[in-house]
Amino acid sequence: MTTSLPTAAPGSAEPAGRTPAASTRAASGTTTSKRRERRLPHTPLNPRPSIPLTLVAGLVLVYTLLPLAWLVVNATKDQNGLLDSFGLWFADDTHFWDNIGRTLTYDDGVFVRWLLNTLLYVTAGAGGATVLAVLGGYALATYDFPGRRAVFAVVLGAVAVPGTALAVPTFLMFSNMGLTNTPWAVIIPSLISPFGLYLMWVFAAEAVPTELLEAARIDGSGELRTFFTIALPLLMPGTVTVLLFSMVATWNNYFLPLIMIKDPDWYPLTLGLNAWNAQAQTAGGQAVFDLIITGSLLTIVPIVAVFLLLQRYWQSGLAAGSVKE
User: For the whole model, what pTM was predicted?
Assistant: First the structure.
């Protein structure tokens, strides 16, 4: 006896072997599934929209970008346009490229000299502070030695002490050594970064699994080779973070060069632009507010570029799956 399977009639939308009731149940199940997807509970991965939080974030964004927008707009104006036009809109004529040229050539190109000085302080000071913080943080997180808790207390205490409280003792010490009014008076204090050391200490303790280091030592790898080939790539996100913090702190440093440097040829950009600003208040001085604004805009461009270039190193989970627990 042969039993034939039911087939759909020609032109029918129902597939073979499915009754209209089954199709209705399937459609109903699909609709219910979609409703359940729309009614998923709000979790950290699926947060509930918050209108007040969105408004606060928008206000913070406007507060952050408004000074930058003012700087960009007013860098296109000359001295008269700064006084005669609205601060948040462009003037009738544009002098942007002319302002840049005058800024770079004013007073025999002293702005370029200040820029090179700042690059020197950042490269030697911030770069050295980052190297010391990485080496010290890795050592404190990896090795166990007597006095480790005391070092931890000293580092935390150094983080809590403001830099202005150490300015006068630092000046007196460098003055006795004859290092004031030299680049070393800015570079050497910039090498000490208690916050960077603490940050690398905490980051290295979590980012570098002890099992990886033990496996490398068992395979015969030395401590230096283990650090450069295994630990350093894992420490790259923390290293970049410390580098950026140190760079911004040294680039924007004003108080330390103010008390250490008296020769205008060794001024960083912060002191140089302040000297231009003080010209308008001196007898017979020339007001160059348009050059100050343009110079301020040129000052922040390198920092923004460095942030954009180094953000790709902010990665997490580089050691995920490297050890079995």
Answer: 0.78
